Amino acid sequence: MKKTPIFSILFIMVFCVSILTACFSSWMPDNHNMGTITINFGDVNSRSVLPPWPPNELLEYIDYEITLFSDNESIPTFTASYGETISKVVTAGLWNIKIDAFLEDRETPVSPNGERIWYATGKNSYLVIGGINNTVPIEMFPICQECKEKYPCECDSNEDQFVPVTAIISNFNEIIQTDVPVLLNVTVLPINATNKIVTWTIIDDGGTNSSITNNRLTAEFGGTILLTALIVDGVFEGVDFNANFELTVVQPPVPNYEARRGSEMFETLADAIAAAGDAPSNAPAEIIILKDITTSGITLGNIEDRHIRLIVEDYNNYTITLDTGWDGPLFNIQSGSSLILGGEGLGNEGTLTLTGGNAPARLNRRGVNVSGTLEIINSVTITNFRNTGDGGGVFVNSGTFHMKGGTISNNEAEKGAGVFLSGGGTFFNMSDGYITENKANQGNNQVGGGVVVSGPAIFNFIGGFISLNTSDSDGGGIHISGGTIFMIGGNIIDNVAASIGSGSGGGINIIGGTVNISDGYISRNSAVNGGGINLSGARLNITGGTIGGDQSDDANIASNNGGGVSVVGGGTFDMRNGTISYNESSNGGGVSVMNGGSFYMKDGTISYNRSDASGGGVFNSAGTFWISNGEIINNISAIGRALYVENDGRAESGIFDGDSLSNTVILSSPYDDDIIIEDGDLRP
Length: 684
Known about the structure:
By secondary structure, the chain is mainly β. Among the domains are: 16-158, Immunoglobulin-like (Sandwich), CATH 2.60.40; 167-250, Immunoglobulin-like, CATH 2.60.40.1080; 504-684. It contains one helix and 71 strands. It has a 29-stranded mixed sheet that branches. The longest helix is centred in the middle third of the chain and has 6 residues, at 269-274. The protein is elongated and about 135 Å long. It starts with 15 loop residues before the first strand and ends with a strand. The model is unreliable at 1-31, 42-61 and 654-672 (pLDDT under 50).
């Protein structure tokens, strides 16, 4: 016995029910109310009229039972086969017609209790009138074998039953624009269909040069695209479901407006910001950029506080350019106002670029002035601003700057070409993004290619990159003259101080304030003094992180003193943990302490550093070096591989015993010249 699996049927067949009434003569009054119901199951050779599921060849094994009944009488259930014609004479009146289809013939029950398994059923009612022939369609639908109700039902037994796909409905606009990716989002019906994975194919791209990547359709030229959506085994095992869609590609209209807020369009971005009203800071007014814009400076909060978010949608790339004739910032954020650049989690963000264009450097011509709050998120670039004063990309004075992503690049200024921080109540929190390829090359005191921290400002460096910045004088990556830096993570790499002349602090130059480092990397920076960090008259506290790296390619390089760290002029370096390794210089490959500087090493490792002249690990000339724990190992130098002391320098610790080692805290190699005292004190 060949079984047919239970699968949903929307329309299995239309039965032709004809009512044939006989012509009765007046001399037979008792037959006047009789009629004939004829049920014709169709032509067995014309199976094309059947629906495509289940496969037609299985229908020949299905057995049909027909039941006729009315309020007054019923006819015993009788059976039929496909292609058979059955006639029954009944009394004229309202008759109910019920047809049941089974998975097997009536001789072979399948279920354990002997019940026959239903496959589908159909019901209708028809008024039989003698002498009139009619056709009555009967809709067939599948039956749940557990509850005997129309399938799909709420019965638990349906959980493992196959549910065929009946339709694929598009949720995307069928008129699209060139070069704008469109997500081919659809709804598969019924929602509980067994197989719902859709595969897209371009049948005819109509000359649009279209393609599909990750279910996103992009077309380069106008035209008409014919697509097909295919669900494998969507109808039945071995029978796929597919649906075709036609899309029209048009060239996008050239917008006449610069910005949109909600459904309101604005001719200029400044108008949109001015009309934004008093949206709260926790729900800023969203303004959509619609085109490339050239504008003079825009102030937020000139009259009343403004809280604005600028975003670009539909994967567009737009630029806001500062007018070449404007001497001032592109955006000026007053105290109490805020500006967010970029969307967060919108799913269709484009890119937004703020640029100074090709205008020459002029005083105060910068990207953003911040006395309120600035936040940068994802796909935002601030670039090509040239200021002969302080701050090329962003200038923060008694405000807050949150950098959660984006890029600040190729800006120029005298100080702080990327970001300049000044004044009390100034905070810069950088958790991601890039400050890169900025140049402190204007004016006469060029410091801080990437960032300048001055006054009581606070810089929390949590993540991201400060890289490839240059300064004509000091502080290729960061210059701090006051305030505090907390380096909790992130990377300061490939920065250069003294790209011309002499300069200090390739990664960080500290001449005031305090720098606290607990994690992160300072690598591949270069300067004349202090390839990684230069410290003068200020304080450096290290409890973790790495200065250098784990191979020679990671080296910070100083052409004179302090490949990793240079401490001079009253500066104090307190090292409680962390690593200074694989750095290079002439003197003090790891650390150079000179001219009144102090280095207190309480733990950590100074290893694999190299000096061409003296002090592979530590070089001390007229400074103070105090060590209570840690390791100075495997450093390389012409003389004094671990430590070199000269010019009344002092080296103090209980680890020393005369001029030899009493334990293994300092251990470079088994050579006699690990510690060289030319002129100074070595004290226990």
